[in-house]
Structures
1.
Amino acid sequence: MKLLHLADLHARGERAKEVLQSLRIAKKTALRETVSLIVLAGDTWDRAVLNVAGAHFIEFVTAIGELADVAPVAMIYGTPTHDVEGSLEVFETLDTRHPITLLQPGIAYQVFNTPNGSEIIQMPEGAAKLHPLATALLFGVPEPNKKWLTSMVDNRDDAEAAIRNALRGLFAGLGAMRRGLTSHVSVPTVLVYHGQVAGARLQTGDILDAGAGLRPSVDDLALVGADYIAMGDIHEPQRVGESIGLPAYYCGSAYPVDFGETHEAGCNLVNVLPGSHTVARISFEHPRNQTIRTTAERDMFSLDVAKHEPVIQGARVKLEVTCDKDHGFADRYGAPDESS
Ligand SMILES: [Mn+2]
């Protein structure tokens, strides 16, 4: 099954041009590749959006709706400060050719072929098996937080440990559901997840350790037995858990949200089969950000930037020049200001 994996759209009025460009390229790609599923893995909004001029609310909703005219769209909630509670329900109300479905934790969905194309159908509670014509099994886990995980915990004596166990139990439970639901069919399982995973790399170069908060390990995610894990939250595209064969990917943010994000923004075009997958990167064609740091040794005009680091073709380059007060730069060129 072919799917398109997007995440971290961070839609906000000030960046509407970039967000809408990313969505246009995603739609074009989904059409060209005839994907059966489009996944938005959280942080669709950057913050609560008012339906007022300048917010581009209607354009964002329309552009995401247009994705669902190509293929069914599966969404999950991201970080609560970005996808504010209740802010994604609007998408389920749209009159699109295919459904837009907000995936809830602990519930199984099947991607299903109908004469009109692909659909996402929630499995009825207690259903033992996928429909014989199902093309994929689908699970969604929004960013882990105490609020929704606590509702899955019976014993509240040791809140922190109990909630961690609840998250691990959720992944193990999805694994058990998968084995039952797919015992008679050979279809891939796709897990959509928003949040950190131990072992992931941040833009700063730091690697997340396993110790903190509700952050799952790659072994926790592996309990699901998914054939592709479409993740959101970390903005630098990467695969996580490859050493244990985990097919978990952050596709990265849909545009560079700030200058610290130096990756080429895009989405993952995924071909997933039971037990195997391939990933191709699709660029959203935004300029990359590059910061070049250098030191002025004699004066500004003798700077040889190329000597320090190759400039990426087409990049937005920020030049950071460090100079020594004793060299009298301020006297010669004036105090640093916007144009320095
Ligand atoms: Mn994000």
2.
Amino acid sequence: MTTTHFKNADWIVAWDEGAQSHTYIRNGDLVFTDNEITFVGKGYDGAADTVIDGSDLCLIPGFVDIHAHPASEVFYRGIREDHSVPEHHMTGLYERSCVFNIEKEALKYGAEVSYADLMMSGVTTLVDIVFPYPGWTDVMKRSGMRMYAAPGFNTATWYRDNAHQLKYRENIAQGEKDFAAAMELIDELRADNTGRLNGIVSPVQIDNNTDEILVESHKAAKERGVPWTTHASQSVVEFNIMVERHGKTPIQYLADLGLLGRGTILGHAMVIDDNDWVRWHSETDLQLLGESHTAVAHCPTPFMRYGTTMQHFGRYKDAGVVMGIGTDTIPHNYIEDLRYAAVLARVASHNGHAASTADVFHAGTVGGAEALMRDDLGRLAVGAKADIVVLDGTHPVMMPLRDLLASLIHSAAERAVKDVYIDGIQTVKDHQCLTLDRERGLAKVAEAQPRMEASVPDRDYLNRSSLEIFPLSLPIAGD
Ligand SMILES: [Zn+2]
């Protein structure tokens, strides 16, 4: 047994079980033994193997990122930030998915980079949604993160042969094969002796799966007591296709199949029936989500770049929806996403009180934990896992340090993240990731990105080049 004692920390964000909320402790102590927190409060006088002087340090719980695609998204840096397709009600998702193919061998380097970035922005638990690739298990294990691997499967894939329609190529046998392989991988990870690896059952998109496989996979999740996630109500395109197929909104369709409820996480449940972009007549979706305590992975960044957003975080929270935050795209900077979640809720509602700094911090910690059905994550409390983020309270962008969460979320973001412990083991030290080789990963990603772009004309229905579809922000002089 090894005991670590943070002595007299300037600030601690501790969990108040009675109030079911976080609270500040000033000049307090936090102690963990092996992978579990054993003391949070003032004046610890027990023994410890290591004592860390907490003056100028601030301790917060590690963030729980409930929706990310770390292996692939980093390949789209410089490509997707301005990409938006008007015929698809502004989402660029379908066009990108159709024209890009990342080499399977390169994906592990994407994960190496993104896992490091996530930890360096305070993420300790991660839902990683991806079609499995070589080396995935190895990089998950090496990272030291608490992983919820979501090996994806679909019974159909998207394609395009004109600007305005999204079409589907069905391959049910492939989907079933990938579903079986996903369950095998989840079972294998859950048997890992570190206890940090877990799984989440993930038919990737609602519109790319049959009713049968959605129901069957949800049953498989329930049998194992693991969560289930899919992309649903993520775009106007998908909303309209589901209405056309079923006469129901995506949320109503999931409700009728019995797939809403605790343990279900929807990315991103944003285009629901009363959203301005669709204005469908029914107006039942939010109630269905809230009354069933379904979790929503709110990922502000990709959508705000298209000019869209959830309407709105505060309303969802008040309806009873379990709100969690995901990074989804690049950059993998969790704290910036918390900031956007708060700000966009206020913009969407024309109400400065629609989402407070405390609300989004709650979503990023215990909200995500609740979505994953965990009461030992996302909080600094006795008995919780030792997933701890240490902030530098003297960083210039944290000061004056009158209100820790306000300084962190609205000013400093990842710049204040100094050290990270996951399961009691340090993975970030002095702002650097100890477990992964971020530089090597970045070099490999940078090498593979042009090869990914080179195959775009063969995959695009108009045979356009990558530069034609995704021009640079400025032309290069002389070209
Ligand atoms: Zn996603």
